[in-house]
Amino acid sequence: MSNENRSNYPSTLTLDNFSSTTKLAANEVSIPVGSKESLNEKDELYNPYEHREVDHPNSSAGALIHLLKSSLGSGILAMPNAFKNAGLIFGLVGTIVVGFLCTYCVHILVTASHVICKRSKTPVLGFSETCGAVFKYGPKKLRKFATTAKYTVDIALVVTYFMGNCVYVVFIAESLLKVFEHWFEGHGINLRLYMVIIMGFLLISAQVRELKHLVPFSFLANLCLIVAFGITLYYMFIQINPPSSVPGFSSFSTLPLFFSTVIFAMEGIGVVMPVENTMKKPQQFLGCPGVLNIAMAIVVLLYTVIGFFGYLRYGAKTEASITLNLPVEEIPAQIVNVLIPIAVFLTYNLQMYVPLDIIWKNLLSHKINGTVNRNIAQVLMRCIFVCGTIAIAVAVPNLEPIISLVGSICFSTLGLLVPAIVDTVLYWEEGLGCLKWRLIQNIFLAAFSIFALVSGTVTSIESLINSFNKE
Protein backbone atom coordinates (compact mmCIF):
# COMPACT_ATOMS: atom_id res chain seq x y z
CA MET A 1 0.00 0.00 0.00
CA SER A 2 1.38 3.44 -0.91
CA ASN A 3 2.08 6.10 1.65
CA GLU A 4 -0.74 8.17 0.27
CA ASN A 5 -3.24 5.37 0.70
CA ARG A 6 -2.01 4.72 4.21
CA SER A 7 -2.65 8.30 5.16
CA ASN A 8 -6.14 8.09 3.74
CA TYR A 9 -6.95 4.96 5.65
CA PRO A 10 -5.34 5.24 9.06
CA SER A 11 -5.67 2.08 11.09
CA THR A 12 -3.05 2.51 13.76
CA LEU A 13 -5.21 2.26 16.86
CA THR A 14 -3.39 0.31 19.52
CA LEU A 15 -4.97 -1.30 22.52
CA ASP A 16 -1.93 -1.17 24.75
CA ASN A 17 -3.76 1.50 26.71
CA PHE A 18 -7.18 -0.01 26.23
CA SER A 19 -9.45 -0.09 29.27
CA SER A 20 -12.89 -1.32 30.16
CA THR A 21 -14.47 1.90 29.02
CA THR A 22 -12.36 2.85 26.04
CA LYS A 23 -14.90 1.45 23.72
CA LEU A 24 -15.03 3.07 20.36
CA ALA A 25 -13.89 6.42 19.26
CA ALA A 26 -10.20 5.96 18.69
CA ASN A 27 -10.43 3.75 15.62
CA GLU A 28 -12.62 5.90 13.45
CA VAL A 29 -11.64 6.62 9.88
CA SER A 30 -13.27 8.50 7.06
CA ILE A 31 -15.39 6.58 4.60
CA PRO A 32 -13.69 6.92 1.22
CA VAL A 33 -15.51 8.90 -1.41
CA GLY A 34 -15.87 6.86 -4.56
CA SER A 35 -18.34 5.91 -7.22
CA LYS A 36 -20.86 3.59 -5.63
CA GLU A 37 -21.97 2.45 -9.03
CA SER A 38 -18.48 1.10 -9.77
CA LEU A 39 -18.84 -1.80 -7.35
CA ASN A 40 -18.38 -5.14 -9.09
CA GLU A 41 -17.34 -8.70 -8.46
CA LYS A 42 -13.66 -7.73 -8.28
CA ASP A 43 -14.42 -5.78 -5.12
CA GLU A 44 -15.01 -9.08 -3.37
CA LEU A 45 -11.34 -9.92 -3.94
CA TYR A 46 -10.30 -7.02 -1.71
CA ASN A 47 -9.18 -8.35 1.68
CA PRO A 48 -9.23 -5.59 4.33
CA TYR A 49 -7.05 -7.69 6.63
CA GLU A 50 -4.17 -7.45 4.16
CA HIS A 51 -4.34 -3.66 4.10
CA ARG A 52 -4.48 -2.99 7.82
CA GLU A 53 -1.45 -1.27 9.27
CA VAL A 54 -1.40 -1.70 13.05
CA ASP A 55 1.72 -0.68 14.97
CA HIS A 56 1.10 -2.96 17.94
CA PRO A 57 -1.35 -5.72 16.95
CA ASN A 58 -2.96 -7.76 19.68
CA SER A 59 -2.85 -11.52 19.90
CA SER A 60 -6.05 -13.53 20.18
CA ALA A 61 -5.36 -13.97 23.89
CA GLY A 62 -4.91 -10.23 24.26
CA ALA A 63 -8.17 -9.57 22.43
CA LEU A 64 -9.94 -12.03 24.73
CA ILE A 65 -8.59 -10.22 27.78
CA HIS A 66 -9.76 -6.86 26.42
CA LEU A 67 -13.27 -8.17 25.79
CA LEU A 68 -13.49 -9.67 29.26
CA LYS A 69 -12.15 -6.51 30.89
CA SER A 70 -14.69 -4.38 29.04
CA SER A 71 -17.66 -6.56 30.03
CA LEU A 72 -16.88 -7.46 33.63
CA GLY A 73 -17.55 -4.10 35.24
CA SER A 74 -19.77 -2.77 37.98
CA GLY A 75 -22.88 -3.83 36.04
CA ILE A 76 -22.38 -7.39 37.28
CA LEU A 77 -23.28 -6.17 40.78
CA ALA A 78 -26.82 -5.37 39.55
CA MET A 79 -27.49 -8.92 38.36
CA PRO A 80 -29.00 -10.24 41.63
CA ASN A 81 -31.49 -7.37 41.50
CA ALA A 82 -32.30 -8.29 37.91
CA PHE A 83 -33.07 -11.84 39.05
CA LYS A 84 -35.33 -10.40 41.75
CA ASN A 85 -37.38 -8.70 39.04
CA ALA A 86 -37.65 -11.93 37.02
CA GLY A 87 -37.64 -14.80 39.49
CA LEU A 88 -34.95 -17.42 39.96
CA ILE A 89 -35.78 -19.77 37.08
CA PHE A 90 -36.91 -17.14 34.58
CA GLY A 91 -33.88 -15.03 35.46
CA LEU A 92 -31.59 -17.99 34.80
CA VAL A 93 -33.11 -18.73 31.39
CA GLY A 94 -33.61 -15.06 30.49
CA THR A 95 -29.99 -14.13 31.20
CA ILE A 96 -28.73 -16.90 28.93
CA VAL A 97 -31.15 -15.83 26.16
CA VAL A 98 -30.18 -12.16 26.40
CA GLY A 99 -26.52 -13.16 26.39
CA PHE A 100 -27.05 -15.17 23.22
CA LEU A 101 -28.89 -12.30 21.52
CA CYS A 102 -26.20 -9.77 22.47
CA THR A 103 -23.50 -12.09 21.15
CA TYR A 104 -25.38 -12.73 17.93
CA CYS A 105 -25.87 -9.02 17.32
CA VAL A 106 -22.13 -8.50 17.71
CA HIS A 107 -21.61 -11.19 15.06
CA ILE A 108 -23.99 -9.32 12.78
CA LEU A 109 -22.19 -6.02 13.24
CA VAL A 110 -18.66 -7.40 12.74
CA THR A 111 -19.74 -9.39 9.68
CA ALA A 112 -21.39 -6.29 8.22
CA SER A 113 -18.20 -4.33 8.84
CA HIS A 114 -16.16 -6.96 6.94
CA VAL A 115 -18.56 -6.93 3.99
CA ILE A 116 -18.73 -3.15 3.76
CA CYS A 117 -14.93 -2.85 4.07
CA LYS A 118 -14.67 -4.98 0.93
CA ARG A 119 -17.26 -2.92 -0.93
CA SER A 120 -15.71 0.41 0.05
CA LYS A 121 -12.12 -0.88 -0.12
CA THR A 122 -11.45 0.38 3.39
CA PRO A 123 -9.09 -1.49 5.73
CA VAL A 124 -10.97 -0.69 8.93
CA LEU A 125 -14.26 0.93 10.00
CA GLY A 126 -15.58 1.86 13.43
CA PHE A 127 -19.12 1.40 14.72
CA SER A 128 -20.68 4.60 13.38
CA GLU A 129 -18.61 4.44 10.16
CA THR A 130 -19.90 0.93 9.51
CA CYS A 131 -23.48 2.10 9.92
CA GLY A 132 -22.93 5.06 7.60
CA ALA A 133 -21.10 2.98 4.98
CA VAL A 134 -23.84 0.33 4.94
CA PHE A 135 -26.32 2.98 3.85
CA LYS A 136 -23.82 4.66 1.51
CA TYR A 137 -23.17 1.45 -0.41
CA GLY A 138 -26.67 0.03 0.03
CA PRO A 139 -29.90 0.49 -1.92
CA LYS A 140 -29.91 3.72 -3.94
CA LYS A 141 -32.99 5.09 -2.19
CA LEU A 142 -31.26 4.79 1.19
CA ARG A 143 -27.86 6.23 0.29
CA LYS A 144 -28.91 9.74 1.16
CA PHE A 145 -29.32 8.60 4.78
CA ALA A 146 -25.66 7.56 5.16
CA THR A 147 -24.55 10.69 6.99
CA THR A 148 -27.69 10.67 9.11
CA ALA A 149 -27.09 7.05 10.12
CA LYS A 150 -23.48 7.75 11.13
CA TYR A 151 -24.32 10.80 13.22
CA THR A 152 -27.35 9.10 14.77
CA VAL A 153 -25.09 6.34 16.10
CA ASP A 154 -22.58 8.93 17.31
CA ILE A 155 -25.35 10.77 19.18
CA ALA A 156 -26.59 7.50 20.65
CA LEU A 157 -23.08 6.72 21.87
CA VAL A 158 -22.76 10.13 23.51
CA VAL A 159 -26.12 9.75 25.27
CA THR A 160 -25.30 6.18 26.33
CA TYR A 161 -21.99 7.02 27.95
CA PHE A 162 -23.32 10.22 29.48
CA MET A 163 -26.17 8.33 31.14
CA GLY A 164 -23.77 5.56 32.14
CA ASN A 165 -21.69 8.14 34.00
CA CYS A 166 -24.84 9.38 35.75
CA VAL A 167 -25.27 5.82 37.03
CA TYR A 168 -21.65 5.91 38.19
CA VAL A 169 -22.25 9.07 40.23
CA VAL A 170 -25.29 7.59 41.98
CA PHE A 171 -23.43 4.33 42.59
CA ILE A 172 -20.44 6.09 44.18
CA ALA A 173 -22.64 8.25 46.39
CA GLU A 174 -24.84 5.38 47.61
CA SER A 175 -21.88 3.18 48.50
CA LEU A 176 -20.08 5.95 50.39
CA LEU A 177 -23.28 6.99 52.17
CA LYS A 178 -23.77 3.46 53.49
CA VAL A 179 -20.27 3.34 54.97
CA PHE A 180 -20.16 6.85 56.40
CA GLU A 181 -23.59 6.46 57.99
CA HIS A 182 -22.14 3.52 59.91
CA TRP A 183 -18.89 5.26 60.82
CA PHE A 184 -20.39 8.66 61.67
CA GLU A 185 -23.96 8.02 62.73
CA GLY A 186 -26.12 11.11 62.53
CA HIS A 187 -23.66 13.11 60.44
CA GLY A 188 -26.59 14.72 58.58
CA ILE A 189 -25.13 14.51 55.04
CA ASN A 190 -27.70 13.25 52.55
CA LEU A 191 -27.16 11.41 49.28
CA ARG A 192 -27.37 14.48 47.05
CA LEU A 193 -24.74 16.32 49.07
CA TYR A 194 -22.37 13.38 48.59
CA MET A 195 -22.83 13.78 44.84
CA VAL A 196 -21.93 17.48 45.02
CA ILE A 197 -18.81 16.63 47.04
CA ILE A 198 -17.86 13.99 44.48
CA MET A 199 -18.19 16.59 41.70
CA GLY A 200 -15.15 18.49 42.95
CA PHE A 201 -12.92 15.45 42.62
CA LEU A 202 -14.40 14.50 39.24
CA LEU A 203 -13.78 18.00 37.86
CA ILE A 204 -10.10 17.59 38.65
CA SER A 205 -9.67 14.02 37.36
CA ALA A 206 -11.66 14.83 34.21
CA GLN A 207 -8.86 17.07 32.96
CA VAL A 208 -6.71 14.01 32.14
CA ARG A 209 -7.17 13.78 28.38
CA GLU A 210 -4.82 11.16 26.96
CA LEU A 211 -5.58 7.45 27.11
CA LYS A 212 -2.00 6.58 27.94
CA HIS A 213 -2.27 8.76 31.05
CA LEU A 214 -5.41 6.88 32.09
CA VAL A 215 -3.69 3.50 32.24
CA PRO A 216 -2.89 3.81 35.99
CA PHE A 217 -6.56 4.67 36.59
CA SER A 218 -7.62 1.48 34.82
CA PHE A 219 -5.06 -0.65 36.66
CA LEU A 220 -6.12 0.59 40.10
CA ALA A 221 -9.80 0.27 39.20
CA ASN A 222 -9.38 -3.35 38.13
CA LEU A 223 -7.38 -4.13 41.26
CA CYS A 224 -10.12 -2.68 43.47
CA LEU A 225 -12.81 -4.60 41.57
CA ILE A 226 -11.01 -7.93 41.90
CA VAL A 227 -10.67 -7.58 45.67
CA ALA A 228 -14.26 -6.34 46.05
CA PHE A 229 -15.68 -9.16 43.89
CA GLY A 230 -13.79 -11.73 45.94
CA ILE A 231 -15.23 -10.44 49.23
CA THR A 232 -18.72 -10.19 47.72
CA LEU A 233 -18.57 -13.80 46.55
CA TYR A 234 -17.54 -14.83 50.06
CA TYR A 235 -20.68 -13.24 51.51
CA MET A 236 -22.85 -14.75 48.77
CA PHE A 237 -21.68 -18.32 49.31
CA ILE A 238 -21.33 -18.21 53.09
CA GLN A 239 -25.02 -19.12 53.26
CA ILE A 240 -26.86 -20.69 50.34
CA ASN A 241 -30.62 -20.79 50.79
CA PRO A 242 -32.77 -23.47 49.12
CA PRO A 243 -34.24 -22.53 45.70
CA SER A 244 -37.72 -22.87 47.18
CA SER A 245 -37.03 -19.77 49.32
CA VAL A 246 -37.53 -17.48 46.30
CA PRO A 247 -40.12 -17.54 43.49
CA GLY A 248 -39.17 -19.10 40.16
CA PHE A 249 -41.07 -16.33 38.35
CA SER A 250 -41.63 -12.87 39.75
CA SER A 251 -44.28 -10.99 37.77
CA PHE A 252 -44.92 -9.69 34.27
CA SER A 253 -44.90 -6.11 35.53
CA THR A 254 -41.24 -6.30 36.59
CA LEU A 255 -39.92 -8.20 33.54
CA PRO A 256 -39.03 -4.97 31.69
CA LEU A 257 -36.77 -4.03 34.61
CA PHE A 258 -35.11 -7.44 34.36
CA PHE A 259 -34.40 -7.24 30.63
CA SER A 260 -33.24 -3.63 30.82
CA THR A 261 -30.88 -4.34 33.72
CA VAL A 262 -29.37 -7.42 32.05
CA ILE A 263 -28.87 -5.53 28.80
CA PHE A 264 -27.25 -2.67 30.71
CA ALA A 265 -24.92 -5.04 32.56
CA MET A 266 -24.00 -7.29 29.65
CA GLU A 267 -24.11 -5.18 26.51
CA GLY A 268 -20.72 -3.98 25.27
CA ILE A 269 -21.12 -3.78 21.52
CA GLY A 270 -19.08 -0.60 21.34
CA VAL A 271 -15.88 -2.41 22.29
CA VAL A 272 -15.87 -5.06 19.57
CA MET A 273 -14.76 -2.93 16.63
CA PRO A 274 -11.59 -1.53 18.27
CA VAL A 275 -10.64 -5.01 19.51
CA GLU A 276 -11.28 -6.79 16.22
CA ASN A 277 -9.65 -4.04 14.17
CA THR A 278 -6.35 -4.34 16.03
CA MET A 279 -6.00 -8.12 16.20
CA LYS A 280 -2.92 -9.80 14.72
CA LYS A 281 -5.21 -12.54 13.36
CA PRO A 282 -8.67 -10.95 13.03
CA GLN A 283 -9.95 -14.11 11.34
CA GLN A 284 -9.98 -15.70 14.80
CA PHE A 285 -12.39 -13.12 16.25
CA LEU A 286 -15.55 -14.79 14.95
CA GLY A 287 -16.14 -18.44 14.24
CA CYS A 288 -16.17 -21.48 16.50
CA PRO A 289 -14.94 -21.24 19.12
CA GLY A 290 -13.58 -17.79 18.27
CA VAL A 291 -12.46 -15.00 20.59
CA LEU A 292 -15.92 -13.42 20.76
CA ASN A 293 -17.75 -16.64 21.56
CA ILE A 294 -15.28 -17.61 24.28
CA ALA A 295 -15.42 -14.17 25.89
CA MET A 296 -19.21 -13.98 25.85
CA ALA A 297 -19.58 -17.53 27.16
CA ILE A 298 -17.42 -16.60 30.16
CA VAL A 299 -19.32 -13.33 30.66
CA VAL A 300 -22.75 -14.98 30.51
CA LEU A 301 -21.62 -17.72 32.91
CA LEU A 302 -20.26 -15.25 35.48
CA TYR A 303 -23.27 -12.94 35.24
CA THR A 304 -25.64 -15.89 35.63
CA VAL A 305 -23.78 -17.26 38.66
CA ILE A 306 -23.65 -13.85 40.39
CA GLY A 307 -27.31 -13.14 39.67
CA PHE A 308 -28.54 -16.61 40.61
CA PHE A 309 -26.69 -17.04 43.90
CA GLY A 310 -26.92 -13.37 44.86
CA TYR A 311 -30.71 -13.44 44.61
CA LEU A 312 -30.81 -16.85 46.31
CA ARG A 313 -28.80 -15.39 49.19
CA TYR A 314 -30.76 -12.19 49.81
CA GLY A 315 -34.14 -12.87 48.19
CA ALA A 316 -36.69 -10.06 48.31
CA LYS A 317 -34.23 -7.85 50.20
CA THR A 318 -31.81 -7.74 47.25
CA GLU A 319 -30.69 -4.15 46.59
CA ALA A 320 -29.99 -2.42 43.27
CA SER A 321 -26.33 -3.28 43.82
CA ILE A 322 -25.46 -6.46 45.70
CA THR A 323 -22.78 -4.58 47.65
CA LEU A 324 -25.52 -2.61 49.43
CA ASN A 325 -26.76 -5.89 50.94
CA LEU A 326 -23.49 -6.62 52.69
CA PRO A 327 -23.46 -6.19 56.50
CA VAL A 328 -21.93 -2.74 56.82
CA GLU A 329 -20.98 -3.35 60.46
CA GLU A 330 -18.38 -5.91 59.34
CA ILE A 331 -14.93 -4.78 58.18
CA PRO A 332 -14.82 -6.86 54.92
CA ALA A 333 -18.17 -5.37 53.84
CA GLN A 334 -16.89 -1.88 54.61
CA ILE A 335 -13.84 -2.58 52.47
CA VAL A 336 -16.10 -3.56 49.57
CA ASN A 337 -18.22 -0.41 49.93
CA VAL A 338 -15.05 1.68 49.81
CA LEU A 339 -13.22 -0.18 47.04
CA ILE A 340 -16.19 -0.30 44.66
CA PRO A 341 -16.84 3.48 44.61
CA ILE A 342 -13.08 4.06 44.23
CA ALA A 343 -13.02 1.69 41.24
CA VAL A 344 -16.07 3.36 39.69
CA PHE A 345 -14.58 6.81 40.32
CA LEU A 346 -11.36 5.78 38.55
CA THR A 347 -13.41 4.38 35.66
CA TYR A 348 -15.55 7.51 35.24
CA ASN A 349 -12.83 9.34 33.34
CA LEU A 350 -12.32 6.44 30.97
CA GLN A 351 -16.06 6.19 30.36
CA MET A 352 -16.06 9.90 29.59
CA TYR A 353 -13.38 9.58 26.91
CA VAL A 354 -15.62 8.22 24.14
CA PRO A 355 -18.46 10.81 24.19
CA LEU A 356 -16.06 13.73 24.60
CA ASP A 357 -13.94 12.47 21.73
CA ILE A 358 -17.02 12.30 19.51
CA ILE A 359 -18.18 15.77 20.58
CA TRP A 360 -14.72 17.29 20.10
CA LYS A 361 -14.13 15.81 16.64
CA ASN A 362 -17.58 16.52 15.25
CA LEU A 363 -18.46 19.88 16.82
CA LEU A 364 -15.47 21.74 18.21
CA SER A 365 -12.05 20.79 16.85
CA HIS A 366 -12.51 22.42 13.43
CA LYS A 367 -14.01 25.62 14.88
CA ILE A 368 -11.41 26.48 17.50
CA ASN A 369 -7.90 27.59 16.57
CA GLY A 370 -4.85 28.23 18.71
CA THR A 371 -3.37 26.07 21.43
CA VAL A 372 -4.60 28.28 24.27
CA ASN A 373 -8.16 28.45 22.93
CA ARG A 374 -8.26 24.72 22.34
CA ASN A 375 -7.05 24.00 25.87
CA ILE A 376 -9.66 26.33 27.33
CA ALA A 377 -12.35 24.68 25.22
CA GLN A 378 -11.24 21.23 26.41
CA VAL A 379 -11.38 22.29 30.06
CA LEU A 380 -14.84 23.86 29.67
CA MET A 381 -16.21 20.88 27.72
CA ARG A 382 -15.06 18.45 30.40
CA CYS A 383 -16.39 20.59 33.24
CA ILE A 384 -19.79 20.91 31.53
CA PHE A 385 -19.94 17.14 31.01
CA VAL A 386 -19.16 16.41 34.68
CA CYS A 387 -21.63 19.02 35.93
CA GLY A 388 -24.29 17.59 33.63
CA THR A 389 -23.91 14.07 34.99
CA ILE A 390 -23.97 15.39 38.56
CA ALA A 391 -27.13 17.41 37.82
CA ILE A 392 -28.96 14.36 36.44
CA ALA A 393 -27.80 12.21 39.36
CA VAL A 394 -28.89 14.81 41.92
CA ALA A 395 -32.28 15.12 40.23
CA VAL A 396 -32.79 11.34 40.12
CA PRO A 397 -30.85 9.73 42.99
CA ASN A 398 -32.36 6.27 42.58
CA LEU A 399 -29.99 3.65 41.22
CA GLU A 400 -32.32 0.84 40.12
CA PRO A 401 -34.60 2.78 37.74
CA ILE A 402 -31.63 4.70 36.30
CA ILE A 403 -29.84 1.46 35.42
CA SER A 404 -33.02 0.13 33.85
CA LEU A 405 -33.62 3.38 31.96
CA VAL A 406 -30.12 3.47 30.52
CA GLY A 407 -30.35 -0.20 29.53
CA SER A 408 -33.75 0.16 27.90
CA ILE A 409 -33.08 3.37 25.95
CA CYS A 410 -29.38 3.28 25.17
CA PHE A 411 -28.01 -0.23 25.14
CA SER A 412 -31.08 -1.91 23.65
CA THR A 413 -30.91 0.56 20.76
CA LEU A 414 -27.16 0.30 20.11
CA GLY A 415 -26.78 -3.38 20.91
CA LEU A 416 -29.91 -4.86 19.33
CA LEU A 417 -31.81 -2.44 17.07
CA VAL A 418 -28.87 -0.91 15.18
CA PRO A 419 -27.29 -4.27 14.19
CA ALA A 420 -30.70 -5.50 12.98
CA ILE A 421 -31.15 -2.41 10.79
CA VAL A 422 -27.57 -2.59 9.49
CA ASP A 423 -27.94 -6.26 8.52
CA THR A 424 -31.26 -5.62 6.74
CA VAL A 425 -29.94 -2.70 4.70
CA LEU A 426 -26.71 -4.53 3.85
CA TYR A 427 -28.45 -7.56 2.35
CA TRP A 428 -31.62 -5.88 1.06
CA GLU A 429 -30.64 -6.05 -2.60
CA GLU A 430 -29.45 -9.66 -2.27
CA GLY A 431 -32.89 -10.97 -1.33
CA LEU A 432 -32.29 -11.40 2.43
CA GLY A 433 -31.68 -15.15 2.12
CA CYS A 434 -33.92 -18.17 1.62
CA LEU A 435 -37.52 -17.33 2.54
CA LYS A 436 -36.15 -13.94 3.64
CA TRP A 437 -34.81 -15.47 6.85
CA ARG A 438 -32.59 -12.45 7.48
CA LEU A 439 -35.60 -10.16 7.42
CA ILE A 440 -37.50 -12.43 9.81
CA GLN A 441 -34.60 -12.63 12.24
CA ASN A 442 -34.04 -8.87 12.14
CA ILE A 443 -37.72 -8.14 12.67
CA PHE A 444 -37.55 -10.35 15.77
CA LEU A 445 -34.43 -8.55 17.05
CA ALA A 446 -35.97 -5.15 16.35
CA ALA A 447 -39.21 -6.17 18.06
CA PHE A 448 -37.35 -7.38 21.14
CA SER A 449 -35.31 -4.18 21.20
CA ILE A 450 -38.41 -2.02 20.91
CA PHE A 451 -40.11 -4.07 23.63
CA ALA A 452 -37.15 -3.50 25.95
CA LEU A 453 -37.05 0.15 24.93
CA VAL A 454 -40.73 0.98 25.44
CA SER A 455 -41.63 -1.26 28.36
CA GLY A 456 -38.35 -0.66 30.17
CA THR A 457 -38.65 3.09 29.76
CA VAL A 458 -42.25 3.17 30.98
CA THR A 459 -41.52 0.95 33.98
CA SER A 460 -38.37 2.90 34.87
CA ILE A 461 -40.16 6.22 34.69
CA GLU A 462 -42.96 4.86 36.88
CA SER A 463 -40.35 3.74 39.42
CA LEU A 464 -38.73 7.16 39.32
CA ILE A 465 -42.08 8.88 39.87
CA ASN A 466 -42.81 6.60 42.82
CA SER A 467 -39.42 7.36 44.34
CA PHE A 468 -40.12 11.08 44.03
CA ASN A 469 -43.52 10.65 45.69
CA LYS A 470 -41.91 8.79 48.59
CA GLU A 471 -39.55 11.70 49.12
From TrEMBL:
Molecular function terms, GO-annotated: L-amino acid transmembrane transporter activity
Keyword ATP-binding: no
Broad class of where this protein is predominantly found: membrane
Residue ranges of domain Amino acid transporter transmembrane in the record: 61-461
Compartmental location: Membrane
Transmembrane segments: 88-110, 151-171, 191-208, 215-237, 249-273, 285-311, 331-354, 375-396, 402-427, 439-461
Keywords assigned by UniProt, alphabetized: Membrane, Transmembrane, Transmembrane helix
Domain of life, source organism: Eukaryota
InterPro entries for this protein: AA_transpt_TM (IPR013057)
Bilayer topology: Multi-pass membrane protein
Any one Pfam family match given in the protein's UniProt record, by short name: Aa_trans
Entry keyword annotation includes Transmembrane: yes
Any one GO CC term of the record: vacuolar membrane
Residues forming coiled coils: none
Record's protein name: Amino acid transporter transmembrane domain-containing protein
